[in-house]
Amino acid sequence: MISRISALFAALAVTATLAVSPVTASAQDQKPAEVASAPAAEAPAPAVAEAPAAAEGAKAEKSTDNPYGLMAMVNHGDVVSKTVLTLLVIMSMGSWYILITKLWDSQKLSNEAKSARAGFFKKSSLAEGVKSLSETGAFRYIAQSGIEASEHHEGALTENIDHNSWVTMNVDRAVGDVNSRMQAGLGFLATVGSTSPFIGLFGTVWGILQALTSIGAAGQASIDKVAGPVGEALIMTAIGLGVAVPAVLGYNWLVNRNKGIMAQVRAFAADLHGVLMGNRQVKR
User: Fold this and answer.
1) Can you say how many angstroms the Cα of residue 104 is from the centroid of all Cα atoms in its chain?
2) What pLDDT, on a 0 to 100 scale, did the predictor assign at position 24?
3) DSSP symbol at 280
4) pLDDT of residue 228
5) For 235-252, what is each residue's pLDDT tens digit?
6) Which helix (H) or strand (E) holds 111?
7) In this structure, how many other beta carbons lie within 10 angstroms of the beta carbon of residue 103?
8) 133, 177, 180, 192: least buried by Cβ within 10 Å?
9) What is the structure's pLDDT at 93?
């Protein structure tokens, strides 16, 4: 009886051992699996971090490389479009050069007019008055022309002209030379202001014609295929207007400015003529 009971307890012990061992084995097997799966779960993290950087790089590349901009027009344009663009650039450079130089000349002449009105007629003699003027200035040129005409009224032909008319002619001729120098270059501004919009429009029409021809030959009429070439062609009109507007404004401004300055020049010439007709000799 005792032997049977001991045998029963031994069987129960073996059964309990077999029941616990699979659970322990499964728990031990699960831990390595979890450890192995953890790096696998963490592995995609760098790819997620690199995605925004790649997207930002693509956006930056799109923003800097515009397929419909001015450089695209220059790269894809033919000989006619490039010639039109070059002509507009030359006209713009020439108009700005004339604007700057004419502004400098008019300001210089205005300063000479103020100096002449302030000091020339206060000198004791015409010779001292001439020395007070700028050697390369327009007012000195007018004064010397009038003085030389007054002192050298000789010759078989000039004797038929009275002294007053002879001096008046020479002074007016000197004033006309100064006016011609002041007006030089303004005709170019007027030409640029009147023709550059039409040159730009010609470039636009030519670009649209070439774009539509290419689209028709390719058989693709989607909005992206049409908007790009047509937009590039319209840039020519914008460039033409950008060249014309400064030229027109600068031309009108310089014309009005020169009128005021030339009025001061003519007033000086009239006063000089009156002094020369007063029989005041030039004292050296």
Assistant:
1) 21
2) 41
3) P
4) 63
5) 888 899 999 999 999 999
6) helix 79-119
7) 14
8) 180
9) 94
pLDDT value at residue 27: 43
206, 229 contact by CB (below 8 A)? no
Can you give the pTM of this predicted structure?
A: 0.65
Q: What letter represents residue 183's amino acid?
A: Q
Give the other-Cβ count within 10 Å of 90's Cβ. 12
State residue 49's pLDDT score.
45
The one-character DSSP state at 282 is P
The C-alpha atoms of residue 86 and residue 92 are separated, in whole angstroms, by 10
Q: What does the DSSP assignment read for 1-34? A: -HHHHHHHHHHHHHHHHHHHHHHHHHHHHHHHHH
Instruction: Show the low-confidence residues of the chain (pLDDT under 50).
Output: 1-2, 5-10, 12-49, 51, 60-64, 284
> Of the candidates 72, 54, 41, which has an alpha carbon nearest to the alpha carbon of residue 228?
72
The long-range contacts involving 236-239, CB below 8 angstroms and separated by at least 24 positions, are 236/81, 236/84, 236/85, 236/88, 236/200, 236/201, 236/202, 236/203, 236/204, 236/207, 237/197, 237/200, 237/201, 237/203, 237/204, 238/200, 239/85, 239/88, 239/200, 239/203
- Torsion, CA 210, CA 214, CA 219, CA 220, rounded to 10: -80
Distances 140 to 111, 148, 273 between C-alpha atoms, Å: 13, 12, 14
- Hey, what are 175's tokens? 């004033």
215 Cβ partners below 8 Å, 6+ apart?
Answer: 221, 225, 226, 229
Tell me which residue has tokens 């004064």.
143
> How many whole angstroms separate alpha carbon 66 and alpha carbon 131?
63
